[in-house]
Design goal:
alpha+beta
Length: about 425
């Protein structure tokens, strides 16, 4: 579970103290996928029946989404690894700004709210400051389904005119394969009148997971995981009991932990197809990976430099660019990393340089010259994945690394330090 602050700690800054140079061994378990769980929670708005989600990670973002849904009138019950949501009495059409501002995924609510009630008002979202993530594609798609949409004073207002206030199926072509837009429009289309076709759709595993949930709720979706998704709208959807897929980004981070410490480590459960580009790059680096059908064991000794470029799935994921840079900072040779998704996602470079990494940047490209040894230093994770990159660098560094910015790390990793400690790392959460 993510650490909870006690009253005397609330004004203190949490940090991880990492004693580097420890080999990892054994097995680490992967939690449910954050980026899938958040949208599946929003899908509870599509039905008045109970939706039970299993394999839920214990993350601050999950708590944030629960607060947003509760503010809309959803009844929520939470267990250690499950959440049950009942949206039979929605009391509001607009989540409060103070909750939405810190969670990008809050915008997912607009699709199911509009489909279910015919009206929604959602403030523009916040989240990590890694670059512009506009909602233009969401708005264009909702308009194609018959909604009238306006954006004023930072709030997106949408209404379905006419009798019945029901969206109408249509054809939507996304100018870019936005995961958020694809998922928002899938949920909106699930209750629309008629068939909706989304062209140039995102192909990420989280999109396939959402399609699986909609089908489990009685919906009709085909083509998820391909560039063309077809949704046949239903008058109503029913509840479901559904398991969230394993988090591919956490799995990739844990595999990188094994690689950067030159260890042998089993990571489970992993769906290899979700990490194809990452596995290929790890093998190109010189790592040995063995897939036993449930998990993957990584063995690393010598790490060679590689070049990589972030791309939409099935390309290399932008969410693992920062953690992979930590590994390449310790590789033999020169690597070139190009961030092609977000324009402001190289903020971790400065902190890696503080630890002795030899990195220079030009625009959104980083040129990494591997060094023999990183050195422990006080660093700060500027966003979720940058914080994970700092933890990985600390595992490999000589001496002690202090990592701040844990408010970001706790958004996306369920007890990362506990899992790594169980495998042999030396990490302590302190408050200063």
């Amino acid at each position: 579970m993510t650490a909870t602050l006690i009253p005397s700690q609330q004004l203190l800054v949490p940090q991880l103290e990492i004693c580097g140079g420890k080999k990892l061994e054994g097995e680490v378990r992967v939690s449910g996928a954050k980026n899938s769980a958040l949208v599946l929670m929003a899908a509870s708005l599509l039905t008045e029946n109970s939706l039970r989600l299993r394999n839920m990670p214990a993350l601050s973002d999950i708590g944030g989404m629960a607060d947003i849904l509760a503010a809309l009138g959803v009844q929520i019950e939470r267990g250690s690894d499950w959440v049950e949501l009942q949206a039979n009495h929605l009391s509001h059409i607009s989540p409060p700004y103070e909750l939405v501002n810190s969670l990008r995924a809050s915008f997912f609510c607009i699709g199911p709210l509009l489909a279910r009630l015919g009206v929604a008002r959602v403030p523009l979202p916040g989240g990590c400051k890694i670059g512009a993530r506009p909602v233009v594609e969401h708005v264009k798609g909702l308009k194609a389904l018959g909604a009238q949409v306006t954006i004023e004073h930072g709030v997106v207002s949408a209404v379905v005119p006419g009798r019945g206030h029901r969206l109408t199926g249509g054809r939507i072509h996304l100018d870019c394969p936005s995961v958020g837009a694809t998922e928002t429009l899938m949920m909106a289309a699930a209750l629309a009148d008629g068939e909706t076709v989304i062209e140039n759709a995102a192909q990420e595993p989280e999109v396939i997971d959402l399609a699986g949930l909609i089908i489990a709720m009685g919906g009709r979706v085909r083509g998820a995981g391909t560039p063309t998704i077809t949704i046949v709208g239903m008058e109503k959807l029913h509840g479901a009991n559904y398991m969230v897929i394993p988090d591919r980004i956490e799995a990739g981070t844990l595999l990188l932990a094994g690689a950067i410490t030159r260890s042998s480590l089993r990571v489970t459960p992993v769906i290899p197809e979700h990490l194809g580009a990452v596995i290929s790059k790890l093998e190109e680096c010189g790592c040995q990976l063995n897939n036993d059908g449930i998990g993957i064991t990584i063995k690393a000794d010598r790490i060679n430099a590689v070049d990589l470029r972030t791309q939409p799935f099935p390309g290399f994921p932008t969410d693992l660019q920062a953690p992979f840079m930590s590994l390449l900072a310790t590789a033999e040779g020169s690597s070139v990393i190009t961030e092609a998704i977000f324009e402001n996602r190289l903020q971790h470079v400065g902190d890696l340089q503080r630890m002795g990494a030899d990195i220079r940047t030009q625009g959104n490209t980083a040129f990494v010259e591997g060094v023999a040894q990183l050195s422990g230093a006080p660093v700060t994770g500027s966003d979720l994945r940058a914080a994970a990159a700092m933890v990985l660098a600390g595992l490999a560094a000589d001496g002690t690394t202090s990592v701040q910015g844990l408010q970001h790390l706790d958004r996306g990793y369920d007890n990362l330090e506990g899992k790594l400690n169980a495998a042999g790392a030396s990490i302590k959460r302190t408050y200063a």
